[in-house]
Each structure stands twice: as structure tokens, then as C-alpha cells.
Design goal:
This protein has 281 residues and is α/β, with parallel strands linked by helices. It has helices at residues 26-39, 59-69, 77-83, 98-113, 116-123, 158-168, 231-240, 247-253, 264-268; strands at 9-11, 16-19, 46-48, 72-73, 129-133, 136-140, 172-174, 182-186, 189-193, 208-216, 219-227, 277-280. It is 32% helix and 20% strand. The chain binds fe (ii) ion.
Length: 281
């Protein structure tokens, strides 16, 4: 991972829409793009933290709309794996777990659905994008700064997050991969994860999550926002192509089919509805 000084930073002078994990869910991705339009946020001020293609029905169409209309995109482990035609998703699931078993089905569907042009796009994505906003420099990455598929949760230790932020050499990190939204300010530094657009937040509701970062006075307002979309349609298409595997139901119930990757705190929070929130940093 390159230090901050070696990486050009994109100056953003208005609200920034941050999202991740569209996971081949075209219905949800289109709803997000419509929401960006309603908010008046242009694609130049949108950042995706990766995993554009994964669990859901429409890998090619989702990759295509994110590529054309979704703004700046950081490479996720799914892009790294699919772009390089790797044998598996590279999510970091342990062998023999339910996550690993479920991944076999959706990964095969994603491999079949993509074309050479979109694989090349995925291979060429940057692993890190720095932005300047509200007087702060933030590094957008996928999992962690040190490793694309490291899971950083809200419950991950403060020391680990501060080590990752120090490695980035920035005022904060925007991450993805774990699929759950959270914002933490640690010793004046920021860790922010907008959650995922393509799968609910395991909170027992079908809503999906994005965030908006807005310069405010000398600070930055960070809002976690819920998005409603036509989840029954997205689940129906999955069942129609025999991509049931648990994730179709998850779109409706808001509960993940497997929680193998979750630490105890996040496991306890399963099924508890999350409320939209805002933090001023
Ligand atoms: Fe990921």
C-alpha cells in the first residue's frame, strides 16, 4: 500500500455519496442512482468501496451501470477475483463454512455473467482512492488498508483501526467489505463504512445503506441513510434463475443466510433494526 503523499487526492467541494457492495443487485443499484439524482449529487462526487458483483442476479448489468454512472470505484476482492478469473471470490471465508459453500453458487453465476470488457474494467480499478473534503484527507479502500479482504467491523479493536489509518497516512479511512454501516472517531481520526447497497444490513429489515459526507463549518457531517427499493423484484429474479441459495430470502427478511464472518457483537445485533444516524466530525 502506497503512502498518502504518493497518491493523488481528488478534491470534493460538496456532498459526497459513499456506497459499496452493490453485489449484482441491479434493482438496488438503480434505486441508489435515482437517489443520487434526487440529492443532486453528480457521479464526480460518488465513491464506491467495491464488491460491485457478488450474491445477486445481475452481474453484468450491475457492473455496467456502476461503471458508467456510479462515480469513482475502488477495487473489491470480488473485482480482484473476477477480473483475474480466480477460482473463488477471495472474500476470506474459511473453508467448510456456510459462507464458503454459498459463495460457490453465486461466484459461478457471476463468472458466467461477465464479459471480457467488464473483467478488464475490474482488473484496472484502483485499490485506493484518496479524497480531500472539509479540510480532511480520506483514503477509500475495500476491506482494510493493509489487505483488500480484511474484515474491519465496528467491534474491531480501536488499535487495529488506528494502525490501518496510520498506514494510510490520512485523517481517516472509508472502507467496505464487511457489509455493515458504522462510523467511529478514534483519537480524532475517522473510520467510516457506508454499509452495502446489494444486501440488507442483517438487521431484520430489507433496507440497504449508503452515506453522505457533507462539509459543514470546519467539520464534516457524516450521515448513514437507509434506502428502500423493490427488493421483492430483486429476490424474484434470483429465484427465477435458481440462484436461491439463501441470499434471495435475505433480500426480503433482512437476515443474512450465514453469519460465519461476524464477531460476537455483530452477531448479537442480528435482527435489530438499525436507525439512520449522523455524526459531526
Ligand atoms: Fe469484499
Amino acid at each position: 500500500m502506497m503512502r498518502a503523499m504518493a497518491i493523488p487526492a481528488i478534491a470534493m467541494d460538496g456532498p459526497v455519496l459513499v456506497y459499496g457492495g452493490t453485489y449484482s443487485n441491479l434493482f438496488a443499484t438503480l434505486a441508489l442512482l435515482e437517489q443520487a439524482e434526487r440529492l443532486g449529487i453528480p457521479r464526480e462526487r460518488m465513491i464506491c468501496t467495491g464488491d460491485v458483483v457478488a450474491y445477486c442476479a445481475e452481474p453484468l448489468a450491475t457492473a455496467d451501470v456502476v461503471r458508467r454512472f456510479g462515480g469513482h470505484v475502488v477495487m473489491g476482492n470480488c473485482e480482484e477475483s473476477l477480473g483475474n478469473e480466480a477460482a473463488d471470490c477471495g472474500c476470506g471465508f474459511e473453508e467448510g463454512t456456510a459462507c464458503a459453500a454459498l459463495a460457490v453458487e453465486w461466484y459461478a453465476h457471476a463468472v458466467d455473467g461477465l464479459d471480457a470488457e467488464h473483467r478488464a474494467w475490474m482488473r484496472g480499478l484502483p485499490r485506493r482512492i484518496d479524497i480531500l473534503i472539509g479540510g480532511r484527507r480520506l483514503a477509500a479502500i475495500h476491506g482494510a488498508v493493509s489487505k483488500i479482504n480484511r474484515f474491519i467491523f465496528a467491534s474491531t479493536s480501536r488499535d487495529e483501526k488506528l494502525r490501518e489509518i496510520a498506514l494510510a497516512g490520512t485523517d481517516g479511512v472509508i472502507g467496505g467489505h464487511c457489509g455493515l454501516p458504522f462510523t467511529q472517531i478514534l483519537d480524532g481520526k475517522l473510520w467510516h463504512n457506508p454499509g452495502a447497497i446489494g444486501l440488507p444490513a442483517n438487521d431484520g429489515t430489507p433496507r440497504v445503506w449508503y452515506s453522505v459526507l457533507t462539509p459543514e463549518g470546519a467539520g464534516l457531517r457524516i450521515e448513514h441513510c437507509a434506502l428502500d427499493y423493490r427488493y421483492r423484484g430483486a429476490a424474484g429474479i434470483m429465484r427465477g434463475i435458481n440462484l436461491a441459495g439463501g441470499y434471495a430470502a435475505a433480500l426480503e427478511t433482512g437476515l443474512w443466510p450465514s453469519c460465519d464472518v461476524l464477531p460476537p457483537d455483530e452477531l448479537r445485533a442480528r435482527g435489530r433494526p438499525i436507525a439512520p444516524s449522523a455524526v459531526l466530525w
